[in-house]
Amino acid sequence: QVQLVESGGGSVQAGGSLRLSCAAFGYTYYTYSMAWFRQPPGKEREGVAAIEGDGNTNYADSVNGRFTISQDNAKNLYLQMNSLKPEDTAIYYCAADPRSLRGTWDQAHKYNYWGRGTQVTVSS
After folding, report:
1. What gap in Å lies between CA 87 and CA 4, rounded to an integer?
2. With contact defined as beta carbons under 8 Å apart, do 47 and 108 qualify?
3. Cα 16 from Cα 85, distance rounded (Å)
4. Closest among 76, 78, 96 to 31, alpha carbons compared
């Protein structure tokens, strides 16, 4: 089993930055694929960015060039968010799975492990 705990959310004005963290506990070898998802108010959960054990990364078009996903040796996950926009407002979730999900990284149902989320609010 793997436990994922997000932190770093908060409120920021448009154009600002935040850095989200996701601490992984337990059997971290179950975290070959890790990703950030978000769920805006009244909308479905959507993939933001993902990283695999070989370092390959993927980004949603809406955040490409503004957000950067990274991981440390302890399998903790990070999301650096720059040039934030009001439409980035959402609950952000960390997800993990032991399989390679390169072709389906943005499909939430593929991930076995989830954190509880952290709120990000961007005001105009």
Report:
1. 25
2. yes
3. 8
4. 96
Give the tens place of pLDDT for each residue, 1-35: 899 999 999 999 999 999 999 999 988 778 899 99
Contact 89, 122 (CB under 8 A): yes
Contact 53, 75 (CB under 8 A): no
The model's pLDDT over 42-101, given as tens digits with 9 standing for 90+, comes to: 999 999 999 999 999 999 999 999 999 999 988 899 999 999 999 999 999 999 999 999
Q: For the beta carbon of residue 55, count every other beta carbon within 10 angstroms.
A: 8
**Spatial contact of 98 and 32, defined as CB atoms under 8 Å apart:** yes
In whole angstroms, give the CA distance from residue 54 to residue 120.
Answer: 29
Between the alpha carbon of residue 36 and those of residues 83, 124, the distances in Å are: 17, 23
